[in-house]
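hey so i finally got around to running the thing on that chain from the lab meeting. sorry it took forever, my laptop kept dying and i had to restart like 3 times. anyway pasting the input first so we r on the same page abt which one it is
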Amino acid sequence: MLFNDIIRPLIGDAYCRAVGLGNLEEQFNGFAAETIVLFVDEVDTDQVRQMLKLIARLKRWITEPRIELRAMRQDLRNLDNHLNLILASNQPNSMRIEANDRRCTVCPRQEAKLLDPGEDGAELAQRIAKELPAFADYLRSRPADRSLAGSALDTPAKRLLQAITQTAIEEVAHAFRYGDLAYFVEQRPLGADAMPRTVPARLRWPVARGAGADRRMARAAGSGGAAGVHARPIAR
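ok and heres what got predicted. didnt touch it at all, straight out
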């Protein structure tokens, strides 16, 4: 509804395209020639054959001033890049986003239904269409901040997506980097010969060093409590 009933009428049908994730894997991408908003539905990069290659292509589309396009039975062309990507998904782990990402803004999931029980979707679409001209006038009256519009926001939804799509190696590396000793305590083997819940004093990190990460590690080791996000166990 956001794309079809609001974005497409506001920007223009000729400048908006809706595609599936499979279309982005193909070598032909002529559909992006004059596109301003490209809506990609049902995103789940775990189902992609070459995920890293696809993510690299999306990065280029987001940041490069010119884009390489090739339509079927046509030569490769380089055109000015006006693409804005919207990736929609119902999956909580739809796409891997790097910890140092500067390209993507992640919005919260739509947990509640837009329609109330018994409400007709067609009636809601008609109400949106009636309000759309006034909404367009409101948008035109607001000053635009190009710098802010081109910046990726650090949202709680983005940090959650980054956490749940981490690999086991990335989780361990993150714990080492930030001195998260509690992470390793929580991932200890369980059983009769398992390590004690608290870290023995002889294994605790000395607080006297004074670095922020060292103090955080010492507090976590002394209390046995959790520190940071622990999405999955080390062993898989």
